[in-house]
Specification:
globular
Length: 221
């Protein structure tokens, strides 16, 4: 599905460059489920943002579905992301002015999906995550765990080929967390969705086919 060659990212400071990612070489095949682990500040979220085309990098090469991401114009990258990638954010990133149902529906508007199809898809997601009763509420009226469930439903509604998840169960109780990991397992094994999750949980990491460990912006195993 994608390969990175020597991806390096830094920020400048008076003392020189501070490296956020250094010489990242990673290949992920279609249908894999990869867990990324490492201490805080190791570059996990930065790497996820680069893979999701939400952030750029300073050196290296990123080939996504045979497309050289670093050579694409911003609009081309946006289209590639829109049609292939779902992103679950640690901080939810829900739109405060929209209801739960409208937040989940939002990605479909960008895809030009007909209203009847959008409504059916939203109803399916609301049912899948047991949040039908919350559909007319606004994010501020939800608990952190409920907001995370809405964020996950929103990420899945476009049926992405690649799902990127940044601490997807971090704000959920243990039962909800296990349910989400089972959803990921089903998506991966039955629907062939490629999944990359960042997690601090050894238990959640074990759901993946393999674990990538980061330290100080580098892959160490």
């Amino acid at each position: 599905m994608f390969t990175t060659h020597h991806i390096t990212k830094w920020v400048s400071s008076p003392a020189g460059r501070i490296f956020l990612l250094r010489d990242i070489n990673l290949s992920v095949a279609r249908g894999e489920f990869v867990s990324i682990m490492g201490p805080s500040g190791s570059g996990k979220s930065t790497l996820l943002n680069v893979l999701g085309m939400l952030d750029t990098f300073d050196e290296g090469e990123y080939i996504f579905m045979e497309q050289p991401v670093q050579a694409l114009k911003e609009r081309q990258r946006s289209e590639l992301h829109k049609h292939n990638i779902g992103f679950i954010f640690q901080a939810y990133h829900l739109i405060d002015e929209l209801t739960v149902a409208e937040n989940i529906e939002a990605p479909l508007l960008y895809h030009g999906i007909r209203q009847s199809e959008r409504r059916a898809a939203v109803a399916d997601m609301l049912d899948r995550f047991n949040i039908v009763g919350k559909k007319d509420l606004f994010p501020a009226q939800l608990s952190g765990g409920q907001q995370q469930l809405v964020g996950i439903a929103r990420a899945l509604i476009t049926k992405p080929k690649l799902l990127l998840a940044d601490e997807p169960t971090g704000n959920l109780n243990s039962k909800q967390g296990e349910e989400i990991m089972q959803v990921f397992t089903t998506l991966n094994k039955e629907e062939g969705v490629t999944i990359i999750q960042v997690t601090h949980s050894e238990k959640n990491a074990a759901y993946g086919n393999r674990i990538v460990h980061l330290l100080d912006g580098m892959i160490v195993s």
